[in-house]
Amino acid sequence: MTNKIRSKMILAAGAILLAGSALAQVKIAYIDPLSGMMGATGEHGLREFQFAVDQLNARGGVLGKKFEMVPLDNKLSPQESMVLLNRAIDQGVRYITQGNGSSVAGALIEAVNKHNARNPDKTVLFLNYAAVDPDFTNSKCSFWHFRFDANSDMKLEALTNVMEGDKKIKKVYIFGQDYSFGHQVSKTAKEMIAKKRPDIKIVGDELHPLARIKDFSPYIAKIKASGADSIITGNWGSDLALLIKAAKDAGLKANFYTFYAGVVGSPMALGDAGIDRVKVVSYHSESGLTAKGLKYVMDYKKKYGQAEDPYTQAATNAVGMIAAAMEQVKSDDPVKVAKALEGMHYDSITGDVQMRASDHQLIQPLFVETFAKVDGKKVKLNADGVLEYGFRNDKRVEGYATALPTSCIMEKP
């Protein structure tokens, strides 16, 4: 079945779900790309949310209600996302989730804020599972927004801590996507490197159009010519997979420091060329899984195949935490659920996590890992898409050490 056909089926299912149901449900609208160059990334996230919801429903749901995912294809467009948000709200959806693209997330936060101010009896809660612009839990923080991923500053703090101790690093090239997230990565990476390793020379700092480049070889040629021994990139989806493929084809020997090397398409593009040279910072790690977490991962692989890796831990945390909040307040009202989420501790698949009340940023362990072959010892579980490769843990950063200060001044209902 082609991606195009799958996407049409998903859209049709979403339309049917939005048409209404006589059964009591807690509907979560999933507003993300399900077609186009980033469609595979969006589809993977949807599968992880659906799996978490299926497990919750198998246990009886919450307050006599079942959870239901409503997939809506935004084509990575903020404008399309606004149309879908309004459609979902008109059909009674009170919970939305999104993660691919901070430009989309920023538009959704603003729209949800305005809707809730005008409709206090029909409030909506935004569960952000992957949009990592730090402004969303700082200057643009909102009572109606909760982030279940670590923000880009938190991830760069962990990555640059590892880089600080590697004296082989002399020249760094910063490369990313030309939108708010890419700009934040560039700004913060330069600041952190200047503070921790002022001897490192920044030999390039470049942004490219989001989800529009099909051949990254001209960019790789420039990186190669710069003499960079290390590249920091926040690229994700096809933009990362194609970048890595171009680097591999060109024989670029530099090391990559990434946020998303473990996600759709990237491990396949890496192959042997990425071994011991590509690093990733993530909240998902084989080494960090609890016994409950390992069972969750193996159950997921049993359903979707051994090659697929449930790395979107934010999905299961989001579903589990709002369910726990609803149980606590005996209601699925978004205002009551939001207040219960503030400060909540939750037993995740990598241990205790906490939703910081001051800015609605989830505080959780982060892991810096290196791409490696599955050896049955240090690397037992495969990375997404390929059975023979995975990630070897280099460093675990506890949640309290990732909790950077926030400038959030939040207005609450």
Task: Describe the protein in words.
Strand 6, helix 6 (180-196) and strand 7 form a beta-alpha-beta unit. Helix content is 40%, strand content 20%. The model is unreliable at 1-5 (pLDDT under 50). The strands form 3 sheets. Strands 7-6-8-9-10-14-15 form a 7-stranded mixed β-sheet. It is built from 13 helices and 15 strands. Helix 5 (152-164) runs parallel beside helix 6 (180-196) and helix 7 (217-226) packs across helix 8. With 413 residues, the chain is of the alpha/beta class.
The average pLDDT is 94
Order of secondary-structure elements: HEHEHEHEEHEHEHEHEHEHHHEEEEEH
Low-confidence stretches: 1-5
What is the gyration radius calculated from CA atoms? 20 Å
Percent helix range: 40-55%
How far apart the termini lie comes to 47 Å
Task: Kindly summarize this structure in a few lines.
The protein is an alpha/beta fold and 413 residues long.
Could you give the topology of this structure?
Elements: H1 3-18, E1 25-32, H2 39-58, E2 66-73, H3 78-90, E3 95-98, H4 102-118, E4 125-128, E5 145-147, H5 152-164, E6 171-177, H6 180-196, E7 201-208, H7 217-226, E8 230-233, H8 238-250, E9 255-258, H9 266-270, E10 278-282, H10 291-304, H11 313-329, H12 334-341, E11 345-348, E12 351-355, E13 362-363, E14 366-373, E15 389-397, H13 399-402
Parallel strand pairs: 1-2, 1-3, 3-4, 4-5, 6-7, 6-8, 8-9, 9-10
Antiparallel strand pairs: 10-14, 11-12, 12-13, 14-15
Helix pairs in contact: 2-11, 3-4, 5-6, 7-8, 11-12
